[in-house]
């Protein structure tokens, strides 16, 4: 009997996350990478019908990555995704608005073909559909009116699941893909007489959503609460290609306001990718680690507290003469710049071919440890209770026995060695001595709510 979505998300054992970058039509390049990933995992599992939604417990994306992530999450194979994307690219980036509309409204393309293309595939599927969406899904958007980055999650225990579950999936994808200067923003009725205006999630540090997905999977404010560790968590991140642009002073000085506006997505994408790479390479010992820059290198000797937090893989393409030549392509410098354009649907076939070749070269079976194969026998683990997740247990009411303890207020920062490790106290917290003489820290606010001083007889 197959697991329900909730059972899949909450079951013990190693977890696998797939993260997909934004990048407009360059998402076709990601499909080439995804096809090789799917083929590698099918071979590893000896299952020619394995889907990426079977393997990954959480799939997330931003902008064009949200389209790909949602397609995979509802059970599309990578070949089906390729067929859909090839047909869609020429439609959504085909009909341009007139120059007046572009200058006054910042709308380069008519959004109707995009809306239609999304509705044709995702139909009436809602974010909260626990049957049609086969795995965890996170769509990253940007709420323009509050400057906040929003991850829409389909986990039934997510904090805002009740408010968000009835949104049509296509509308949330459309919100994530509403790139300024390309498409108009979209408004969503958030309830309680509140309307939100959403733009492309790529206008944030989450155009590469890998670190955002790691936070969603592990932080206590989110519903997953998956344990960290190289044997507990695998994060696979895929890009849409990266072009290192260089301008001289005269080029920059002469740019118009509209030229600067058109460059902003490139700036955001470059920074988002740069800092995601730094953070995730520090947190992991990745076989795909790449040279960040000439100063900090690959970060292979860096970590937090001497430990690694996850297994991490990153697959991407550099739009450079050397990189592409190494894959067997011979593009001129001008053609390489053209390949990096996010809305040039004439690049579709070349981008796909580049992604396919890059996948064949970069993605190796050895990257995927047997620890992360699906249907592994999971060893018994301790039941874990977390602060932000209410246990489904019948609690009874008790009162504490009047056991006297001793306490003294400490007016400076301090530490206490305990059996569980070092406890730290703030100025004003209390040093406690328990019934067995053990020392521990008690927060000032909790102390005053819990204890009363014993009056001498």
Description:
This protein is α/β, with parallel strands linked by helices. It contains 16 helices and 13 strands. The chain has helices at residues 5-10, 27-45, 52-55, 64-73, 78-92, 99-105, 112-122, 161-164, 169-176, 210-218, 249-253, 257-282, 321-326, 333-339, 348-362, 444-450, and strands spanning 15-20, 58-62, 136-143, 148-153, 186-191, 194-199, 233-238, 311-315, 406-409, 414-418, 421-425, 430-433, 439-442. Strands 1, 2, 3, 4, 5, 6, 7 and 8 form an eight-stranded mixed β-sheet that branches. A three-stranded antiparallel β-sheet has the order 9-12-13. Helix 2 packs antiparallel against helix 5 (78-92). It is globular. The chain starts with a helix and ends in a 7-residue tail after the last helix.
Low-confidence stretches: 97-106
How much of the sequence lies in strands comes to 15-25%
Share of residues in helices? 25-40%
Specify the biggest β-sheet.
8 strands, mixed
Which structural class fits the helix and strand makeup? alpha/beta
């Amino acid at each position: 009997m197959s697991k329900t979505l909730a059972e899949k998300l909450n079951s013990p054992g190693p977890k696998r996350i797939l993260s997909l970058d934004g990048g407009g039509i360059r998402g076709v390049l990601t499909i080439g990478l995804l096809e090789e990933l799917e083929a590698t995992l099918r071979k590893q599992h000896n299952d020619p019908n394995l889907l990426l939604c079977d393997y990954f417990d959480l799939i997330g994306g931003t902008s064009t990555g949200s389209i790909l992530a949602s397609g995979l999450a509802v059970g599309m194979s990578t070949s089906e995704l390729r067929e859909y994307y090839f047909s869609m690219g020429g439609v959504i980036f085909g009909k341009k608005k007139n120059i007046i509309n572009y200058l006054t409204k910042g709308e380069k393309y008519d959004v109707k073909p995009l809306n239609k293309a999304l509705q044709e595939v995702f139909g009436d599927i809602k974010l909260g559909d626990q049957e049609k969406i086969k795995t965890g899904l996170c769509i990253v958007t940007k709420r323009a009116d509050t400057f906040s980055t929003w991850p829409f999650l389909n986990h039934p225990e997510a904090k805002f699941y009740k408010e968000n579950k009835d949104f049509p999936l296509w509308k949330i994808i459309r919100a994530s893909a509403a790139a300024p200067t390309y498409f108009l923003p979209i408004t969503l009725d958030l309830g309680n007489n509140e309307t939100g205006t959403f733009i492309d999630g790529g206008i944030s540090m989450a155009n590469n959503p890998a670190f955002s997905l790691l936070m969603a999977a592990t932080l206590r404010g989110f519903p997953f609460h998956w344990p960290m560790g190289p044997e507990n968590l695998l994060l696979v991140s895929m890009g849409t290609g990266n072009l290192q642009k260089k301008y001289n002073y005269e080029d920059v000085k002469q740019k118009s306001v509209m030229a600067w506006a058109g460059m902003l997505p490139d700036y955001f994408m470059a920074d988002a990718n740069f800092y995601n790479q730094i953070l995730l390479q520090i947190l992991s010992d990745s076989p795909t680690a790449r040279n960040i820059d000439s100063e900090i290198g690959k970060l292979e000797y860096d970590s937090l507290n001497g430990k690694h937090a996850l297994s991490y893989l990153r697959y991407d393409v550099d739009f450079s003469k050397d990189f592409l030549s190494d894959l067997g392509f011979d593009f001129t410098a001008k053609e390489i710049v053209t390949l990096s354009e996010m809305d040039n649907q004439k690049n579709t076939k070349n981008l796909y071919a580049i992604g396919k070749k890059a996948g064949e070269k970069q993605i190796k079976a050895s990257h995927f440890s047997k620890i992360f194969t699906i249907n592994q026998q999971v060893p018994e683990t301790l039941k874990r209770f977390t602060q932000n997740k209410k246990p489904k247990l019948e609690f009874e009411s008790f009162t504490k026995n009047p056991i006297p303890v001793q306490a003294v207020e400490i007016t400076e920062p301090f530490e206490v060695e305990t059996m569980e490790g070092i406890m730290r106290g703030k100025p004003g917290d209390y040093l406690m001595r328990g019934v067995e003489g053990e020392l521990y820290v008690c927060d000032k606010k909790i102390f005053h709510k819990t204890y009363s001083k014993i009056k001498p007889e």
